[in-house]
Amino acid sequence: MAAGKYDIVIDQGADFALEIALAEDGTAINLSNHTASAQLRPSPTSSTLTATFTCPVTSPTQGKLTMNLGYALTANIAAGKYYYDLEIHNTTANSITRVIEGVARVTPNVTR
After folding, report:
1. 1 CB-near residues (< 8 Å, 6+ apart)
2. What pLDDT does residue 97 have?
3. Is the pTM of this model over 0.70?
4. Any idea what the CATH number is for the domain that residue 59 is in?
5. Residues sharing a CB contact under 8 Å with residue 25, sequence separation 6 or more, in sequence order
6. Residues with Cβ < 8 Å from 94, sequence gap 6 or more?
7. Is residue 112 part of a domain?
8. What pLDDT digit, counting tens, does each position of 5-22 carry?
9. How many CB atoms lie within 10 A of CB 90?
10. pLDDT in tens, 14-45
11. Domain housing 48
12. How far apart are CA 89 and CA 81, in angstroms?
C-alpha cells in the first residue's frame, strides 16, 4: 500500500488533532497489533526534529487512530512550511508501513 498524500494546517498555539481511519478495499484495517508514530521536520531529509506527534490507536477494529500535538508544543513551532509522515508498526509481523505523508503549514498565532 503506497502512502496517501494529505496536507495539513497546524495553528500555532492551539491543539491539533487529526483522526485517520485506515481501510483497504473498503474494509477497515485491524490495528489491534499496531502502534503508530509521526514526526514533523523542516524538510523530508532534515535531521532536525521539529515535533513528534502522539498517535494513539483509538479504535483498533475500525482502523482508527489520531495524530495529536498539544497547544504548548505548537506554540513553540515557528510559522512556516514543514513535512510530516505517519507510520504504523505491526508488532506481530515486525513490519512498518508509511500510511500518510504531506506538507504541514503552521499558521502564526495572533492572540497571546
Report:
1. 24, 97, 99
2. 96
3. yes
4. 2.60.40.10
5. none
6. none
7. no
8. 999 999 999 999 999 999
9. 14
10. 999 999 999 999 999 999 999 999 999 999 99
11. 4-107
12. 27
